[in-house]
């Protein structure tokens, strides 16, 4: 590793003097409680589907995820989810609602370029990689499980 020159050391001291200290613990707590509330709402949506529709615990997951993504997209469109993301950081980005926010944010950002090339072309730039890797991972895990069942490793 190269030794820093006096000029570089002086510059680093200047940067350190003006650098804003980040409240890491408070930011972690904000992310934790906001992410927890989002998950609690998701659980309430799941219970709603189990109670009022013919879903079981195993089958209620898909419509619940769809509703949570839809709500995130709707709140992003109204500018609410962006403010929540500024407050909570990863607490709003890590749950599945962060996926909905990423998709609709790109669509909103590029709407001036037109529906097809702007919204349609850019909507899945960020989310597309998530979809591709999710589908690929599901395929390979399904293939591995099928082989393990076929050869009697698991029952």
TrEMBL record:
Q: Which residues cross the membrane?
A: 31-53, 65-81, 88-108, 128-154
Report the InterPro entries cross-referenced here: Spore_V_AC (IPR014203), SpoVA (IPR005562)
- What keywords are assigned to this protein? Membrane, Transmembrane, Transmembrane helix
Q: Which Pfam families match?
A: SpoVAC_SpoVAEB (PF03862)
Quote the protein name from its UniProt record.
Answer: Stage V sporulation protein AC
Q: What is the lineage of its organism?
A: Bacteria, Bacillati, Bacillota, Bacilli, Bacillales
């Amino acid at each position: 590793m190269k030794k820093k020159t006096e000029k570089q050391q002086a510059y680093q001291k200047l940067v350190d003097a003006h650098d804003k200290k980040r409240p890491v613990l408070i930011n972690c707590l904000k992310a934790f409680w906001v992410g927890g509330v989002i998950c609690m709402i998701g659980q309430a949506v799941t219970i709603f589907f189990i109670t009022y529709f013919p879903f079981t615990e195993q089958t209620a997951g898909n419509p619940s995820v769809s509703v949570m993504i839809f709500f995130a997209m709707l709140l992003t469109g109204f500018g609410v989810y962006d403010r929540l993301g500024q407050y909570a950081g990863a607490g709003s980005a890590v749950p599945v609602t962060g996926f909905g926010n990423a998709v609709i944010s790109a669509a909103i950002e590029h709407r001036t370029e037109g529906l097809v090339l702007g919204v349609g072309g850019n909507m899945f730039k960020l989310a597309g990689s998530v979809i591709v890797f999710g589908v690929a991972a599901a395929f390979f895990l399904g293939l591995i499980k099928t082989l393990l069942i076929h050869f009697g490793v698991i029952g």
